[in-house]
Amino acid sequence: MWKKLKRQDGNEESFFTLSSTEKKALLLKSLLVMIILDYFFYQSVWALVPLLGVGIGYYRMERQILYQKKKETAREQFKELILLASVGQKAGYSAENAFLSSYPDMKALFGENSSVCRMIRILKTGKENNRAFFQMWRQLGNQMEIAEIAEFAQVYEIAHKSSGNMASVMEKTADIIIHKIETEKEIAVFLSGKRLEQQIMNAMPFLIMLYINVTSPGYFRGLYHSPGGVVVMSICLTIYLIAYRLSVRIASIEI
Asked: Would you kindly state where each structural domain of the chain is located, as residue ranges?
């Protein structure tokens, strides 16, 4: 799941890794989910033991969603990089120098620890070790699993091998990639309302149960403290978890 890109100096540079703060936040969210499920479905400390599996599954799912968000951020940064490199080529830079000279601007925009700055550092290291630029782009695209970077690597390789007008190719490729990313952003904005509806629907069963618990204390007591009730609540929880997982998958369909 975590991709590592081997640098030419023998070390490895990780992409889309989680910071310690992000990991702690995910752990706390997973623990909170276990406690909420225990309160609404069992109200028993012992139920936290089997619910640990739910917590682990939730942690993994949220971690994958967070990685996907990091990939989307990297795509946005790549869009800015290729746009700036295209401008640099118009100013007379070679394709390689246009990318490498973009580092100060990318650092100012996104920070030195951003994905785009790490990409440029890898490109620079590859050049210093006499690696072909198109090979480095291909490696980046494959390792980061970002389609736009992989597609750009293919176009760059063809243009490089055919000794074509690299400036013109870069400009047209940049326009196509930028247009594609912007179109996907518009679609994502359109779908954001559906995602909000999905989140509301996921919360509705708990809001209803909370309302009943507040207005009619003890209404669910027979379900919490009897073998038959535990079975019924376990079935209800299983159905909810399946529905929740399906709703997340539907709302997370890649554009």
From this structure: 4-251
